[in-house]
Amino acid sequence: MRAIGQDSFGGPEVLKVVEADRPEPGISEVLIRVHAAGVNPTDWWHRATGGLLGDSPVRLGWDVSGVVEAVGLGVTMFKPGDEVFGMPRLPQAAGTYAEYVTSPARHLARKPAGISHVEAAALPVAALTAWQSLVDTADVRPGRRVLIHAAAGGVGHLAVQIAKARGAYVIGTARSAKRDFVRGLGADEVIDYTQVDFASAVGDVDIVIDTIGGDYGPRSLRTLRPGGIVVSLASPAEAHLASKAQELGVRAGFMIVEPDHAGMKAIAALVEAGQLRAEIDTVLPLEQAAKAHEIGEAGRTTGKIVLTVAG
């Protein structure tokens, strides 16, 4: 099968098309014929550094949408021919930039009806990150005030929609050029972070979703009401926020997304209810994975980048 591989760490140019053996599903696994694979910031971080995967060669990709080709021993949830999407194995290697990939069955869900594989492949990593940070970690509920940084980005634009679907009042930060887009997602307010200090413009916030890191975490603490929480998604270095938050009577924590069958089913339900959609910024064929990384690392995308593989 064709796949994207790399023999060394570095820039996008290290990515290349390689020939690899088609994998076989193990116990409780399925084999997926990949139709599309989403591209995420964690992909280019692992490409450049090895990240959590260790030494090269590294196989990138965790977002997948495709069709079940075969099932391993003990799988009862899916059968060959089923359309599925999900986020296999993270933080272990999955290698969804390929024509075939295996996945534990419970890291997947049925692809939502009425959307393409490209649209489905844009969802898993970013939507699960948004879901687990808002719902599982911060307990978003009706009436909560939620501040979402980089609200036009991959995680951000999905977090806006999930928070609104859960009845929250949503404030997003984005450049003025993306104001209408973020408003169209349902945000109640949009702050141009290049013109206004969000920490001075916003207050009485219950939940902050920080996808940026750096000084955004400490500044976000100032926007919280007592008992509020900053959920940091940017870097483990943000873990130091917890002690500072405690001094202020608020909370902070760093979260890493995990495979989650129940979360994937909840995301699919929101999609089918018309409450969640992925904005697709760029679609490229598998062999242009390096170009996809170049575009993503420029940091100006609206929504997601997706690689098409089959179909």
What does this structure look like?
The strands form three sheets. Strands 3, 4, 5, 6, 7, 14 and 15 form a seven-stranded mixed β-sheet that branches. The protein has 311 residues and is an alpha/beta fold. The mean pLDDT is 95. The protein has helices at 41-49, 117-121, 124-137, 154-165, 179-185, 198-201, 216-221, 241-248, 261-272, 289-297, and strands spanning 2-5, 16-19, 29-39, 64-71, 83-86, 100-104, 108-110, 145-148, 169-173, 189-191, 205-210, 224-232, 251-254, 280-285, 304-308.
- Tell me roughly what share of residues is in helical segments: 25-40%
C-alpha termini separation: 15 Å
Oligomer: single chain
Low-confidence stretches: none
Q: Sketch the major β-sheet.
A: 7 strands, mixed
Structural class, from helix and strand content?
A: alpha/beta
Brief summary of the model shown:
This protein is α/β, with parallel strands linked by helices and 311 residues long. Helices cover 28% and strands 26% of the residues.
Tags for this entry?
alpha/beta, 311 residues, 26% strand
How is the secondary structure organized here?
Layout: E1 2-5, E2 16-19, E3 29-39, H1 41-49, E4 64-71, E5 83-86, E6 100-104, E7 108-110, H2 117-121, H3 124-137, E8 145-148, H4 154-165, E9 169-173, H5 179-185, E10 189-191, H6 198-201, E11 205-210, H7 216-221, E12 224-232, H8 241-248, E13 251-254, H9 261-272, E14 280-285, H10 289-297, E15 304-308
